Amino acid sequence: MFLFLDTANLEEIVRGVEGLPLAGVTTCPTLIVKEHPAHFWGLLKDIRGVIGAERILHVQVMGGTAEEILEDARALWAHGAGEGPFYVKVPVTGEGYRAMPMLRKAGISFTATTIHSVSQAMLAAAQGASFLAPYINHIEDGGESGEEMVSRTAEFLARRGLSSQILAASFRNVRQIVGVLGAGAHTVTVSPELAWKMAAHPMTEASVAKFRRAWDGAFGSQARVANLP
Fold this sequence. Notes:
- By secondary structure, the chain is of the alpha/beta class.
- The chain is built from 11 helices and 8 strands.
- It has helices at 10-19, 29-35, 40-51, 66-79, 94-105, 118-126, 136-141, 146-160, 174-183, 192-199, 202-219; strands spanning 3-6, 22-26, 56-60, 86-91, 110-115, 131-134, 165-168, 187-190.
- Strands 1-2-3-4-5-6-7-8 form an 8-stranded parallel barrel, surrounded by 8 helices.
- Helix 8 packs parallel to helix 9 (174-183).
- The chain is globular.
């Protein structure tokens, strides 16, 4: 599955699990503070309870130094956010890069986040990041192409035989999502609003309404296939 929900809202996660092919959930400090900041560990456990043991959960650290990042990661890992695959999100700062081999040595899987260039993605992949999270909106706001950045990163990974997956993030619209997936992103993480926009189209609604009118004209508005005589 290629789709993550970027949220800490439990209602949206429940809805996504019920109706979308979710690979999992990604969170960040901004999203968690928006929901229940006073119940951080409880919120993470609740999220894990909703997504189950088979889906992936990404949670970001807040330490500033490599040592603090490792300490945060160990705390997250110890609490575990329940049972299931779990990745610590590490920003690609200088200290973040320094923390990556420490995390790898500690056996903690991590996602390199806040990526804004191909070179940052290259370094993080070489440091053993399981996922690379380029911020597409930010890249395009800077005058560069998000699709080209993803394509060049995908080519680098394939050429070097690296196992990192591109988890593209920060989108403004569905066109961007489709574009980076076509350019080689393995997965995307999107807001619940954009996830449901991916599923919708006005012509689909029009087609269903046409079917409904034909059916109702023949069998009545209360009839369904299951209750026909």
